[in-house]
Specification:
heterodimer; A: mainly beta; about 0% helix; B: mainly beta; four-stranded antiparallel β-sheet; 11 strands; globular
Chain lengths: ~110, ~120
């Protein structure tokens, strides 16, 4: 069974600064996928970034990047140059492949202060 | 493409009533799933389907029923609503095949209140 842990319930960051959101996971699979989803107040779930476990290079999408530490089973999200629109709940999730289930962490509420 | 659509967006039920939450996708995805989101709990899987005619239970299936007669549609039925089913419900779909990365596409959600 997969588990995903997000131990920080809330974080706050000043606009234009950098913030890192933590996530750890546990799986017995060798091939799996990791995701960060953003949920703004509109409630829509939006994919922020994905990482294939077999890729050593950390994924990057514009201001968003991950620090993927496979041995430590850690998958943190770094948001650079934080913007007010980044205010949202962020969920870490893992998936082991075709027809498998997506397992979510409990989420973290990020507030960006002007 | 409309992506994943859900109806209704909001619903209030009385205890004991039944209803169906509708979900449809136009991306020809084989894999579809239903989640519920409760404060402090993240998203928890209710039921999922790997193709038409095939469904299975997730983490919290009690009180819910699903069927999958077509690739496009995956309705969720509440058999006899209870206050514990007050939640936000999300439907999602994803590509199902070799190669990954199996990103799930989510509908806009349904906020259900059971009084």
């Amino acid at each position: 069974a997969q588990t995903v842990t997000q131990s920080q319930p809330e974080m706050s960051v000043q606009e234009a600064e950098t913030v890192t959101l933590s996530c750890t996971y546990d799986t017995s699979e060798n091939n799996y996928y990791l995701f960060w989803y953003k949920q703004p107040p509109s409630r829509q779930m939006i994919l922020v970034i994905r990482q294939e476990a077999y890729k050593q290079q950390n994924a990057t999408e514009n201001r968003f990047s991950v620090n993927f530490q496979k041995a430590a089973k850690s998958f943190s999200l770094k948001i650079s140059d934080s913007q007010l629109g980044d205010t949202a709940m962020y969920f870490c999730a893992s998936h082991t492949g075709a027809n498998s289930k997506l397992t979510f962490g409990k989420g973290i509420t990020l507030s960006v202060r002007p | 493409n409309a992506g994943v659509t859900q109806t209704p967006k909001f619903q209030v039920l009385k205890t004991g009533q039944s209803m169906t939450l509708q979900c449809a996708q136009d991306m020809n995805h084989e894999y579809m799933s239903w989640y519920r989101q409760d404060p402090g709990m993240g998203l928890r899987l209710i039921h999922y389907s790997v193709g038409a005619g095939i469904t299975d239970q997730g983490e919290v299936p009690n009180g819910y029923n699903v069927s999958r007669s077509t690739t496009e549609d995956f309705p969720l039925r509440l058999l006899s609503a209870a206050p514990s089913q007050t939640s936000v419900y999300f439907c999602a779909s994803s590509y199902s095949g070799t190669g990954g990365p199996y990103e799930q596409y989510f509908g806009p959600g349904t906020r259900l209140t059971v009084t």
